[in-house]
Amino acid sequence: MRRGLPIETTMPHIGGSDVLGEVDAVGPGVSAAVPAGPVVVNPSLWCGECEWCRRGEQPLCTCYRILGEHTQGGLAEFAIVPAANLLPVPAGYPEVQAAAAPLT
């Protein structure tokens, strides 16, 4: 990945696909509902417009990326992710397990 395979990665790079936290702020133009409390991030990133996305086959998206692999990730104090990728962590569910679940 550091050599730019399969997609060139911006350096310096912040890795981390296993992301759990709380929403600090919502960007302008965000219309999706944002969960309150602890959230886990679905690290899959897709365009939402290509033929595959329109069919509901986001992993086949022509622009498919993984947070922390092809983009800057969550091993930081703050991370920017699409609101649609936020999932609430159920009350009482161990946060470490919740953070590890989406990528696997």
Q: What share of the residues lie within helices?
A: under 10%
Mean pLDDT: 88
* Cross-sheet strand order for the largest sheet: 1-2-5
Shape: globular
Give the assembly state of these chains: single chain
Order of helices and strands: EEEHEEH
* Tally of individual helices: 2
Explain this structure.
The chain has 2 helices and 5 strands. With 104 residues, it is mostly loops. The strands form 2 sheets. Strands 1-2-5 form a 3-stranded antiparallel beta sheet. The longest helix has 6 residues, at 95-100. It is globular, with a radius of gyration of 14 Å.
Short overview:
This protein has 104 residues and is mostly loops.
How are the SSEs ordered, and which strands pair?
Blueprint: E1 20-21, E2 39-41, E3 44-45, H1 51-54, E4 65-66, E5 86-88, H2 95-100
Antiparallel strand pairs: 1-2, 2-5, 3-4
List keywords for this structure.
104 residues, little secondary structure, three-stranded antiparallel β-sheet, two-stranded antiparallel sheet, 2 helices, 12% strand, globular
